[in-house]
Sequence to fold (394 residues):
Amino acid sequence: MNYHISDRMASLQPSAIREILKATSDPSIIPFAAGNPAAEAFPAKEIAAISAEILEKEPITALQYSITEGYPLLRESIKDFACRHENLFHGDDALITCSGAQQGIELTTKCLCNEGDTVICEDPSFIGSLNTFRSYKTNLVGIPMEEDGMNLELLEKALKENPSTRFIYVIPNFQNPSGYTTSLEKRQAIYALAKQYGVMIMEDNPYGELRYSGESVPSIKSMDEEGIVVYCGSFSKIISPGMRIGYVIAPQPLLAKIIVAKQASDVHSNIWAQMVCDRFLRSTDMDAHIAKLNDIYRRKVSLMTSCMEEHFSKSVRFTRPEGGLFLWCDLPEQVDMMGFCNQAVQNKVAVVPGIAFAVQPGSHTHSIRLNFSTPSDEGIVRGIEILGKMTQEF
Ligand SMILES: Cc1ncc(COP(=O)(O)O)c(C=O)c1O
Fold:
């Protein structure tokens, strides 16, 4: 059979990360390529107890169909959690739970973009979102990422040149993949530009709670008096990615469309997992839980960077993120990066090539992304030693 694949999907290729991750199913490979929470970060016992109690006391609610907007108690507890330090709701903003932030990003794109519309992104950016934007055949415009967020002059130029821009996609905290955090000044400026040019902002914040050092910065959504920011949150990095619980906060007219889009997609997110997430949020001192996670990751990132300082060639530059799960390394120009990544896998270390996160082909050809949350401490020490030796040889 000659399968007819839609135009939407025909040009999309399996992501470079997925391909590398396939190679890493081999447990002898040190996993610097993934973005998984550390094994010791999962509240497994608490989740097991909550889950058992739900199945004993409310089995039918947990196993029955539910409503698309999300489990009502969870929507309340998310609101309390997400707004405990700042206000994310203005005007007629409302919230829907979804299957990870990824689904929120997908449904919002589906509702906002026609084929050929422009989406402006940080460059590099999260590959899962880039592939969503590509699958809706949008025109992607990348704005170079700087240490304090995207380059504002180029952002304004892109807004001027692309009147069909529907939204600016930003990951303001500990960006995946660069590890950079957008400064307050740039958040305000991005908001002001979006307002001036009449476009929306999609603020994707799965890592915001994972701050190990420095001061937290207000989210763009907290400034949203005009109803132009769609905020995507997630419990993947602070409770469990396997539960697939994320959420979108958006103005009601847009959210009403997102609900219809979700009905057509999966009816509702897993209700059992939503109930577990709700009970976990209600029964846990979340600030203490998050502080515990941040202790784990602060230690891991500092182990990784100190090993890098010891073993890496001085010609390699790398970021020192204040949170999140990733480091970004720039290798010298003459290094064949794909050769480096393939050699690393052969040496039993998986890293992701920078080109996987490029908005347009041809950029980030000398960078790699490293994850420090998935590998064990021994894996970090051993893996960085191997990569360090390679940086000297390459
Ligand atoms: C920037 C960014 N946005 C969204 C997601 C998707 O997260 P979720 O597991 O909530 O779908 C990820 C996952 O790694 C991410 O890095």
Q: What stands out?
A: The chain is about 45% helix and 15% strand. The chain has a mean pLDDT of 94. The two ends are 46 Å apart (CA to CA). The pocket of pyridoxal-5'-phosphate is lined by residues 35, 100-102, 126, 128, 171, 176, 204, 206, 234, 236, 241, 246 (CB under 6 Å).
